[in-house]
């Protein structure tokens, strides 16, 4: 290649790219593009799995904190309590007299619109006011009691299951905790 100066500007004798050179560069760019696409897709998939797991765990923690607070304040477990519905008496006005407005039921219900998601609800039996506590990936909750007669139980053990992943890789995780009723009696 020779450089010839014409009117102060360099000029190259450039014949351009040949067809084989062009094909090789297209093939190399295609291979590099495929590698980058696969890496980005894999990263996004991993991020999605971790995000789902963290959302489920955060939801369970929220339920655990609220439920633990209610259990520590409870005067006792209501006779309507079962393994799937926890009914507790919280003496809101501190008069030691049980009122329907002081009985709260914790349960897992299907989310609006169906699907695999369920909600954890806290329902005031007297007023019917429903508070949704957990909203995303909760699968079910199981409550067990420290006595055969639930009204005599002073410890409630809760096991909450949540879906760690969505879709065909769904995996149930369990969180179990036991809370002693501080105001029992």
Distance between the termini: 99 Å
Helix content: 25-40%
Chain-averaged pLDDT: 83
| Order of adjacent strands in the largest pleated sheet | 3-4-5-6-7-8-9
Q: Write down the secondary-structure element order.
A: EEHEEEEEEE
Question: What does this entry look like structurally?
Answer:
It is rod-shaped and about 100 Å long. It has one domain. It has a seven-stranded antiparallel β-sheet. By secondary structure, the protein is of the alpha+beta class. The chain has one helix spanning 19-73, and strands at 3-6, 9-12, 76-77, 86-89, 103-110, 118-124, 130-145, 155-163, 172-180. Strand 6 and strand 7 (130-145) form a beta hairpin.
Compose a concise summary of this entry.
It is built from 1 helix and 9 strands, in the order ββαβββββββ.
What distinguishing features does this structure have?
single chain, about 180 residues, alpha+beta, 7-stranded antiparallel beta sheet, two-stranded antiparallel sheet, about 30% helix, rod-shaped
Topology overview:
Layout: E1 3-6, E2 9-12, H1 19-73, E3 76-77, E4 86-89, E5 103-110, E6 118-124, E7 130-145, E8 155-163, E9 172-180
Antiparallel strand pairs: 1-2, 3-4, 4-5, 5-6, 6-7, 7-8, 8-9
């Amino acid at each position: 290649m020779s450089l010839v100066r014409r009117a102060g500007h360099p000029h190259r004798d450039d014949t351009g790219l040949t067809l084989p050179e062009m094909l090789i560069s297209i093939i190399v760019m295609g291979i590099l593009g495929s590698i980058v696409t696969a890496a980005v897709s894999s990263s996004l998939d991993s991020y999605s799995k971790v995000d789902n797991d963290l959302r489920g765990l955060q939801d369970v923690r929220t339920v655990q904190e609220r439920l633990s607070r209610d259990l520590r304040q409870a005067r006792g477990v209501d006779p309507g309590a079962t393994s799937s519905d926890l009914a507790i008496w919280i003496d809101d006005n501190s008069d030691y007299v049980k009122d329907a407005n002081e009985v709260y039921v914790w349960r897992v219900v299907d989310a609006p619109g169906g699907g695999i998601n369920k909600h954890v609800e806290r329902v005031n039996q007297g007023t019917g006011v429903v508070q949704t506590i957990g909203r995303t990936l909760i699968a079910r909750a199981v409550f067990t009691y420290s006595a055969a007669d639930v009204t005599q139980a002073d410890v409630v053990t809760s096991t909450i299951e949540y879906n760690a992943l969505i879709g065909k890789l769904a995996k149930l995780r369990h969180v179990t905790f036991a809370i002693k009723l501080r105001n029992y009696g």
